[in-house]
Amino acid sequence: MRIPRIDKRYRHLKRYREIARVLIKYGFGHILSRMRVFALLRIGKKIKEKPEFEELTYAKRIRLAMEELGPTFVKLGQVLSTRPFLIPLELVIELTKLQDEVAPFDFHQVKYIVEHQLKATLDRLFPEFSHIPIASASLSQVHKAKTMKGEGVVVKVQRPGIKRIIDTDMEILKDLVSLLVRYVPESRQYDPKGMVEELVKTFRKEIDFKNEGRNIEIFSSNFKDDPTIFVPKVFWDLTTSKVLTMECIHGVKVSNLAEIERRGLDRKIIAKNAGRAVFKQIFLDGFFHADPHPGNLFVLENNVIAPLDYGMMGRLSESLMDEISDLLVNVVTWNPKGIVKVYQKAGVLTDRTDLKILESDLTEFLYRYHKIPLSRIDMKSIINDAFDIIHRHDIQIQSELMLFGKAMVTYEEVGKMLDPDYDLVTEAIPFVKKLSKRKYQPKIILRDIVTALQDLRDFLVPLPFDLQRITQKLTRGEFKFSLEHLGLGKFILQMERSSNRISFSLIIAALIVGSSLIMRLDVGPFLLGYPLIGILGYIFAGILGVWLVIAILRSGRI
Q1: Element (DSSP H or E) covering residue 292
Q2: With 0-12 CB in 10 A as exposed, 13-18 as middle and 19+ as buried, what is 514?
Q3: Which residues contact residue 378 at a Cβ distance below 8 angstroms, ignoring those fewer than 6 apart?
Q4: What are phi and psi of 143, to 5 degrees?
Q5: What SS3 class is residue 216?
Q6: Which residues of 284-305 are buried (b: 16+ CB within 10 A; e: fewer)?
């Protein structure tokens, strides 16, 4: 079996070496060794793990390595943190601490990018433009400015060359993942290839600021009648894929409790407003802020909440919201068998899932919280227990639900920070009831009936013709079944390679035996007193033998 070939172009080789250096530095050189990265890159393990990192937990070392490796790996960590059913909880908690703050890039570059993207000089676009950024992250940095009409705005500018860096890192990641899956079989349970594919989709969305602008407009439309939520306006005439201009927000971070108190704002009301906004996003709109850490939430006058950074948004499809509705109905009615049926219908169970054990675990989970006052139940415990069952039974839950779980836990922490008595579960009840009743609304029922009738029509209309074709083929004896044995192709390939090697070995052996016989004969021409044909046979056999050994070693199987 051929191993994945690493891209050795010089522009990639330097980055390969840097990634290897950082991973060795934080104590993961043994994994690179198993992946055969050192041999494939023709580099030696010259960097030793630093003693100060030996006492750190593996989770913290992974987080530090990702931060040092830059934006691609920070985003990979964020994707991993939304998959607690795949990775240990300790690692999930650590990855949520990933810092995405880096030193700002030079203002001359900011000026060039803005002018190049907006096709005008900076002074003709913004009469006032701060040279010092108010925020700087791995993908972009933000500057305050004023438009020609005197409107206060913030301008988000994409970091120069970031797309090239991400493209290079993604190619390298795909290579490394191929090696990981090939040589570290236990990694396959974490679906590394799936995570890299999801990372590609995430970057494709976040690298295009127009996508973020559209997210802001959708979010604004969803909350147009809610005075407790403020969504900034997007200035589309000053926005491109690399520059995003939006209304400036004058508020205070939700985590700055001292300033909130100083401004006379009510923390209890803020917590309730934020909670209601979250429940509406998830249970009613199916479109929610997926990165809700305190740094992305501001508080304005009159206890108004202003979310920031709309690059990462979660989306729940109609069918997924129906599944959540069915799950919640069965949870409220303490029906574990019903939950199993919902899982089966959604197709998230594997052939290895033992339904009876799953039902037993769900029963235990439900009765663990049975008749406990809602004020004593926290969302983090519920989510962790649910993910434990998901992980144990290898249930393939969609990544959107992982974002949903992460968002709920984060918002509960924000609510508790603002108001220690805040009860997220109790506040969620009215919205859960609305969601459970959603599928019984007349317009939803009508939609489902129309869909069912269309499906029935698509099935019945071609049915007579299909039956006629089957009957004709049966009559003529042309009806055939096609069987495919899963995994047999790989076995046949391995057998062919093994037989080729055996044949090759027999040829080498025959050359050696034949040459030995010739050497015993007094047949010319001669070289140094020995038959030349025999000598050439030995040389040819030696070359073929070395070639065979190299091919076996390169295959990774001896």
Answers
A1: none
A2: middle
A3: 412, 424, 425
A4: -125, 145
A5: helix
A6: ebbbbbbbbeeebbbbbeebbb
CB 297 within 8 A of CB 307: yes
pLDDT (0 to 100) of residue 36:
77
Q: Which tokens go with 169?
A: 């890192």
Q: Which residues contact 259 (CB under 8 A, 6 or more apart)?
A: 252, 253
Which pLDDT does position 2 carry in this prediction?
A: 45
Q: Give yes or no for a contact between 328 and 435, defined as CB atoms under 8 angstroms apart.
A: yes
**What residues act catalytically?**
291
Bridge partner list, 252:
299
Cβ within 8 Å of residue 530, ≥6 positions away: 519
Q: What gap in Å lies between CA 251 and CA 156, rounded to an integer? A: 18
Cα–Cα distance measured from residue 152 to residue 135, given in angstroms and rounded to the nearest whole number: 16
Separation of CA 493 from chain center? 33
Taking the C-alpha atoms of residue 243 and residue 237, their distance in angstroms, rounded to an integer, is 11
- Phi/psi-derived region of residue 528, left when phi > 0, alpha when psi is between -120 and 50, beta in every other case: left
The answer to whether 408 touches 84, Cβ cutoff 8 Å, is: no
At residue 8, the pLDDT reads 46
Q: Which of 125, 138, 116, 133 is nearest to 68 (CA)?
A: 138
> 10-residue block means of pLDDT along the chain (558 residues)?
46 80 86 76 55 77 88 80 67 76 88 96 95 89 94 95 86 85 74 77 85 94 93 96 94 90 92 89 85 80 90 81 78 81 81 86 82 66 76 73 73 84 79 75 78 83 83 77 63 73 80 78 72 79 79 63
Q: What pLDDT score was predicted for residue 125?
A: 95
One-letter amino acid at 264 equals G
Number of H helices, E strands in the chain: 23, 12
CB atoms < 10 A from the CB of 187, how many? Answer: 17
CA distance 37 to 272: 52
How far is CA 555 from each of CA 3, 132, 139, 275, 548, rounded to the nearest angstrom?
6, 54, 39, 56, 11
Fold for domain 101-166+195-248? Phosphorylase Kinase; domain 1 (3.30.200)
Best CA proximity match to 199, nearest among 26, 86, 83, 116: 83
Q: How far apart are CA 492 and CA 486, in angstroms?
A: 12
Domain ranges of the chain: 10-100+167-194, 101-166+195-248, 255-440, 445-476, 490-555
E strands in 46-205:
128-129, 135-136, 140-146, 152-158
pLDDT of the residue at 52: 61
